[in-house]
Amino acid sequence: MKLLLLVIAFIVPLLANADPVYRLLNLKATDVGYTADITLQEGSGPYGSDIKNLQLETTFESEDTIRIKITDRDRRRWEVPKVVKTKQPTQPPKKVSILWFAFRLYDIHFEEKPFSFEIQRASSGEVLFSTRGTPFVYSDQYITIGTTFPKPDPNLYGAGERAAPFRLETNNQRYTMFNIDNPNIYKENLYGTHPFFLEFRDGRSSGAFLLNSNAQDIIVNNQSLNFITIGGIIDLFVFVGPSPSQVVKQYHTVIGAPFIPAFWSLGWHQSRFGYHNIQEVQQVVQKYKENDLPLDTIWNDIDYMQACEIHHHHHSLSLGLQGFHDRYPEDQMRRFVDKLHANNQQYIVIVDPGIKKQVGYRAYDEGVRDDIFIKRSDNKTDIVNKVWPGLCTFPDFTNPKCHQYWDRLVSDFLSRVPIDGLWLDMNEQSGFCDGECNGDPIIKNKFSHRNPPYVPGSQFGRNLNSRTLSSDAIYSIGSNYDLHNMYPLYQIESTSRTLQQTRNNKRAMILTRANFPSTGTLSAHWTGDNWSNWLSLRMSLSGILSMQLFGISFVGSDICGFKEDASYDLCARWTQVGSLYPFSRNHNELGRKLQEPYLFDQAFTNMARKYLYNRYSLLFHLYTLFYENSVHKGMVWRPLFFEFALDKGNDGIARIDEQFLLGPSLLCSPVVYERASSVRAYFPSGVTWYDYYSGEAVSNGSEWRVLRAPWDHLPLHIRSGSIIVKNTPALTSAQTKKNPIGLLVALSDTLDDSLGSLYLDDGDSLNTVDLGKYTLITYRSVYQGGNRNVFRLQNEILNLGYTQSSNTIDRIVVYGVKGNDCKAESGGAVLPTKIGPFNTLTVNLQVNVLSKLDVVVNCKP
Ligand SMILES: *[C@@H]1O[C@H](CO)[C@@H](O)[C@H](O)[C@H]1NC(C)=O
Ligand SMILES: *[C@@H]1O[C@H](CO)[C@@H](O)[C@H](O)[C@H]1NC(C)=O
Ligand SMILES: *[C@@H]1O[C@H](CO)[C@@H](O)[C@H](O)[C@H]1NC(C)=O
Ligand SMILES: CC(=O)N[C@H]1CO[C@H](CO)[C@@H](O)[C@@H]1O
């Protein structure tokens, strides 16, 4: 009998192995695209349960984005709900009208049998997405759709979250996407799911996004890419670019634009798991000040929480929000936070979703009373898993009643200690039991939500229940099988509403670990539990670049590494490049060597001060990049090929991920290898690159150069033709915001103009852009009379909705000046000038940032 079963088990998949063949029928053009039926003609997918009658709906979303939705015609399947009220682009997508149909940048062609489709670039006929010749399977728990590429080894990016090189490897790789609490193990799936990829081919780009929340794999095999998902539907968006940044912009139009962080949150952050008591935290703030090191925000990990003590550690572990541990007396905490605020500094604490299952604990009792915890598959009992406090239940943020519950807990906590943001950890959801700790699982049938036939992540020896809530757990709107990856979105949405209301409609900071498309509209992210090693340092760069694609612009990694001890050199290099992370926070694990920047030696402290001040001198620039990012003009960090897609100098530009651009014009080439004192850096073509600090012209582009980089030097270059605003840095962002500013002009090396911009608002109120409560200024330097010896620098105020800024522009520094005898004039008055090394010109002046700026510089050759 046993043998027979075994034989059947082998034969059945073999028999079923004739690939499914679907046929397209009844194709009809509609006002906005096409509809059709797709019917299974023969064959079957590897796991059976094929869906026979499918329905196709193709929508021309806009001139550059097409959507292909394939659903079950007979039965409604799980579809991703719209969770976050995503901020739509400032230019709303063009109304579907006959007019723009003529300008569509793509065509779509269907093949009847076997069913396939091909999306082409209208201008050239180039095929961007073609399912022809790729497997198309649509069964209950296994759906696959894919595309082929014209040449082997295409340049592909995306498919996160993981710690891996930015450019995807194409030799039969399986990229799993399923949110789990996994330390940054090279190439394994991590805390977020992003079924998006961007392709870069011959200087142009396209991309695709599968709007699907189930556990998935993307398989990349030399000349093809296949999405495999184990539930939901096919809802595919294809973006035609044609530039890489246009693809990203098109993608963000679907998932929502990144938010503009509160100005203060762009400052420096210090955190540690293992600040044992309030005195230690106070001392860190004090030490920063004594060492003349900028600090905006101090963080507490779980050490502050009141509850049980485990592992014989000093710290206590439980849900926060209930209250503070004895070592963090609440009255002292309140005074401490008030003092931080008086000093323009901020305080943030961590909170986990798990609620300790303990009668008498308010958060638990009220959750039971309101019946808002996630249920087991019986849909009756609260599911229980173990997290730091022990056995826990988990709020079901999809339940509308849950918001009141969460709102009450969070706002009560804030009324006691006015924290400035929340750090949402463990929200994958992480659990120490596989599935649940309730006892034996309730298993109803073989292939259930708990036990699907195909398991993304099984190559790492995991199933969907490994160290997380059981995939058959039940929420008010569906099953964990479908919702697991979206849990953080619901939690962030609820937390954000509460923080905004409680904090008088000010932007609050939320830092989440788990993530999904749309996360970046409300929250920051850090790349999780990395190691204090050089690989983690390198992976932080590609991790941040990938998150920019995913619309999570406000992102960073634990500076100096979380796990294990950071060496002097590693922490020095990490502090340097970390000072240019969109989100800059030094964070460290319990029991590890302390790594605050003043703890090494005087030389280290001086080095850290230099780069922290450098960050603070770029705060207006960063803030302006976030504004531009939010209104869809690009990313905060950019890979080199985003700005230099047509760079002819070197094919390798598509592979570079150890250098990056901060905005369009600052090229950073950090040292990310042990014992290196130089770095091999590529300079993209078509512009001159000046050393950012000295103004020396270093390269005319299109070449690799070896740059000297002693232990305390971060190579940074500015592109000719750009203007950036520089702050006079202070110990906090608030003070920096008031200080005088300067303009750094890197003159164009052709007769083109040099350009820059500045975005200003009050720094923390909501919707400043939509309400017009901001000021936007552009700066332009124009050569006069076709002559590079004379140039005129002017500003133009494009929007004047915020007038509280009283910054003085007190200096203009110009790189690339021709000649060394220069006169500067403004409105007939002569301005003092100075020529320094490398013909760097400094002009001194006193002009209010909101006044007219008009300076003419005339140099003798
Ligand atoms: C990709 O496919 C081409 C053509 O089939 C083959 O020559 C090449 O070796 C393959 N490359 C890899 C990395 O598998
Ligand atoms: C679970 O129970 C609730 C209320 O009793 C009901 O509304 C919901 O539809 C049930 N969910 C499932 C998946 O059975
Ligand atoms: C850039 O090109 C100019 C003009 O050909 C030349 O004078 C200059 O030395 C070059 N600069 C560098 C850094 O190679
Ligand atoms: C991204 C990364 O650096 N991952 C590594 C971190 O360190 C651990 C332990 O050395 C490795 O297992 C990871 O691969």
TrEMBL record:
Coiled coil: none annotated. Gene3D superfamilies: Glycosidases (3.20.20.80), glycosyl hydrolase (family 31) (2.60.40.1760), Golgi alpha-mannosidase II (2.60.40.1180). Residues 1-18 form the signal peptide. Pfam families: Gal_mutarotas_2, Glyco_hydro_31_2nd, Glyco_hydro_31_3rd. PROSITE patterns: GLYCOSYL_HYDROL_F31_1 (PS00129). Residues 635-724 form the Glycosyl hydrolase family 31 C-terminal domain. InterPro entries: Gal_mutarotase_sf_dom, GH, Glyco_hydro_31_AS, Glyco_hydro_31_C, Glyco_hydro_31_N_dom, Glyco_hydro_31_TIM, Glyco_hydro_b. GO terms for biological process: carbohydrate metabolic process. Residues 258-625 form the Glycoside hydrolase family 31 TIM barrel domain. Transmembrane segments: none annotated. Belongs to the glycosyl hydrolase 31 family. This is Maltase. It comes from Acrasis kona.
